[in-house]
Amino acid sequence: MTQSISNLAKSVRMLADMEEPIGQILKRTELADNLTLEKLSCPLGVILIIFESRPDALVQIAALAIRSGNGLLLKGGKEAKRSNEVLHKVITSAIPDTVGDKLIGLVTTREAIPDLLKLDDVIDLVVPRGSNKLVSQIKDTTKIPVLGHSDGICHVYVDKEANIEMAKQIIKDSKTDYPAACNAMETLLIHKDLSTNGGLDQLVVELKNEGVELYGGPRASTLLNIAEARSFHHDSHTECIVTENLEVAETFLCQVDSAAVFHNASTRFCDGARFGLGAEVGISTSRIHARGPVGVEGLLTNRWILKGNGQVVEGDRGVTYSHKELPLKA
After folding, report:
1. Contacts 24+ apart (CB under 8 A), 82-85
2. Which keywords, in A-to-Z order, does the entry hold (predicted)?
């Protein structure tokens, strides 16, 4: 418990110490003489986040919202209702009066969610953290953009040129370090050569020793005499290849189109804190607008500032465009 609180505090301090993300000039362009265009970072607006019964999630999400300048509505799991209420009180009491304690709101009843999902003129983004069923229900009942993962399946592929001892450790960690996490391995893929040279047997023994219940595809279930999986899902979250062949690894990294793709490393590394983001509001498998662990950057958008000197378009007859890239600082 002490270690968990210490890690949580470290994440929050990391966010506090990061460079101010709001109002950063991302690009400056001279469109024409005395006509300068700037692209600035800015908050998304108001975000509704529905999350699981993990009180540390509330702290991380609230810290990210404050750092990115977004308004926030929180709905945590009922099992952590009391903890969430206390943490929410602590956080809002620490917000300066110049900002106001209404920056972060806490929703305590499930019944309020359908009404909130109708407020597409007030809420700018919904982030559901949880099961595929939850994400699907949210998407089906709101016009508000939804950021999240659906099935979020993680695969580990062990190539024929893998170091089997390394593969055993990566598979063990990917599956058993925290099985409930969305970055835990669901599917293990094995090169066919490993089924004849003893490599597959070693990997299976490693998993069974950890108490993992195995299900196989049509070939694997027959080969290993295990129950056949009822279905296979392919929604991509984090994929790993274990191989000593760098050419094969590079092909995998370039061609597997997932939110995160790893070579010789556990899928459990796919995490906002471990990526150095400080924390995450969740992990997205969608392509718009953020993908993978979503930290401060994923909670920002941009706006354009044009500074002129009386210029008009006039059918583009009166402007000579230069489109010259300028230094970020004038």
Report:
1. 83/55, 83/58, 84/55, 84/58, 84/108
2. Amino-acid biosynthesis, Kinase, NADP, Oxidoreductase, Proline biosynthesis, Transferase
As beta bridge partners, residue 27 has 39
Beta strands in 102-259 (DSSP E): 104-107, 125-128, 153-158, 187-190, 236-242
Residues 6+ apart with CB under 8 A from 120: 142, 143, 144
Identify the H or E element spanning 13: helix 2-17
Q: Is 96 helix (H, G, I), strand (E, B) or coil?
A: coil
pLDDT of residue 1: 59
CATH of domain 153-269: 3.40.309.10
- Spatial separation of the C-alpha atoms in residues 157 and 289, rounded to whole Å: 28
- Continuous segment of H or E residues that includes residue 263: strand 260-263
Cα 254 to Cα 187, 230, 251, distances in angstroms: 20, 30, 5
The CATH-assigned architecture of domain 2-148+286-304 is 3-Layer(aba) Sandwich (3.40)
- CA 15 to mean position of chain CA atoms: 16
Burial 157-168 (b: 16+ CB within 10 A, else e): bbbeebebeebb
- Residues constituting the chain: 330
Residue ranges of the chain assigned to CATH 3.40.605.10: 2-148+286-304
* Contact criterion met (CB below 8 Å) for 148 and 142: no
> For residue 26, how far is the Cα from the chain centroid?
22
Which DSSP symbol is given to 269?
G
Average pLDDT of each block of 10 consecutive residues along the chain (330 residues)?
80 94 97 96 97 86 95 93 93 88 90 95 93 86 88 92 98 95 94 95 95 94 92 84 98 96 98 92 87 95 96 89 92
Per the CB < 8 A criterion, the answer to whether 153 and 175 are in contact is no
Where along the chain do the CATH 3.40.309.10 domains lie?
153-269
- Give me the sign of the Cα torsion angle 52, 56, 57, 61: positive
